[in-house]
Design goal:
12 helices, nine-stranded mixed sheet, three-stranded antiparallel sheet, disordered N terminus, alpha+beta
Length: about 400
């Protein structure tokens, strides 16, 4: 399929709208809106984080290039048991640690009897995968980070001024569909077209480039663009570009309304808006499941430049925006940098990774600069994957 705007618009127009949700606005024949007079704006948010040094990337690459060797580690087992004891709301959990020498430990646990789940829901960690596919396309000359959104979705607010880099970095200013109360109160599956229709019905939060705001809308749009470039659904494109290429057999990019074999389902503590959503609704912003071992392998492949070249890897951490309104940390292109000292003044570690969550499921994957190890934790129910990951890494700091 070509990169034609018409192809993407036509597929959007053919989608059937769900009850109680606005119709997809990008109908054929609609005139492209005039760009706003103000256009883009210079960034005026909080200070960017200092850049990560080339030598730090080289150390990470060295740690990620060792051959993985499965091991049994009683100390990790004990720490995972300790973490579960501190989180009575956890229903199931999985964790993996890959040490700098390639020794890799992994374990899963569930509160009730039955077979251990082989896959967990990683929510927004999927954004790292979506960004990887986009950066592969940029490296191949199929896309440019300066391409503007009006090439594919001209009816989105400020489309003429929003770049692919804005979408990847969350500097587009587009409203996040997940914040819409009506959408959150609507149970079941919602298509990408419906999600974007909801987002387009809200005014932008700011001019493109002017600030930072986490928006799932950005990554749904990126999923649509990936589908247009590769001529196949987003989940199939990423399965071929990432999972098959790196033999990640327990990684699934979830097709619309698909059931995932061996999945630990999200387990929210109580019914609330969004808890009755279908797990495939987030699309390229979060519809993926995997084992913790596969997650660690992916993050090692990323920092070892096995998924795209070193220039692309460094570019993803080049401009690091403070994650205003989300929590301590900074955001690059589908990647987070977390200075643990922001939460604990005594801490000195820095994580390169990504976290995610939705009602009843939370996850994190990271490379620890201090220990030079990789860690991944996902859980269902109520608990903190970050605290669990830190408890596991503490074994390497002793």
């Amino acid at each position: 399929m070509s990169l034609s705007r018409r192809a993407l618009i036509a597929s959007a127009a053919a989608a059937a709208p769900a009850p109680a949700l606005a119709a997809w606005p990008f109908g054929l024949g609609r005139r492209k809106p005039e760009p706003p007079k103000d256009g883009r704006a210079d960034y005026a948010g909080g200070p960017l984080r200092q850049q990560i040094g080339d030598w730090q990337f080289e150390i990470a690459k060295t740690s990620a290039s060792t051959r993985l060797q499965p091991v049994i580690r009683d100390n990790y087992e004990a720490r995972l048991t300790e973490a579960v004891g501190k989180m009575p709301g956890v229903k199931a959990i999985t964790a993996a640690v890959a040490e700098p020498d390639g020794s890799v430990w992994t374990q899963a646990w569930r509160a009730d009897e039955g077979p251990l789940p082989t896959r967990f829901y990683w929510a927004s960690v999927a954004k790292a995968y979506t960004a990887t596919a986009v950066m592969q396309m940029v490296a191949a000359g199929q896309l440019s980070l300066t391409d503007t959104l009006d090439r594919w979705a001209p009816a989105m607010p400020n489309a003429a001024w929003i770049t692919l880099e804005d979408l990847l970095a969350h500097t587009s200013g587009l409203y996040s569909f997940q914040a819409d109360e009506t959408l959150r109160a609507t149970p079941g599956y919602k298509s990408p077209e419906q999600l974007l229709a909801v987002a387009a019905a809200h005014p932008p939060l700011f001019q493109p480039g002017a600030a930072w705001s986490y928006s799932n809308t950005n990554y749904v749009l990126l999923g649509q663009i990936i589908a247009a470039v590769d001529g196949k659904p987003w989940h199939e494109a990423l399965a071929e570009r990432i999972a098959a290429r790196r033999e990640l057999e327990d990684t699934v990019f979830i097709a619309p309304q698909a059931k995932v074999e061996g999945l630990a389902p999200p387990a929210p503590a109580e019914a609330a808006p969004g808890t009755a959503d279908d797990i495939s609704t987030p699309y390229a912003a979060g519809a993926m499941a995997a084992s913790s071992l596969d997650m660690v392998r992916f993050w090692r492949d990323l920092l070892a430049d096995r998924l795209h070249g070193p220039e692309a890897t460094r570019r993803r951490f080049y401009r690091l925006y403070p994650m205003t309104g989300v929590g301590p940390g900074h955001y690059g292109l589908g990647a987070m940098v977390s200075d643990l000292s922001a939460a604990d003044p005594a801490a000195t570690d820095v994580w390169l990774g990504h976290s995610g969550g939705l009602p009843g499921a939370k996850a994190v994957v990271a490379y620890s600069m201090q220990t030079r190890a990789f860690v991944a934790v996902a859980l269902t129910g109520e608990g903190s994957p970050e605290a669990t990951a830190n408890l596991l890494l503490a074994e390497l700091r002793r």
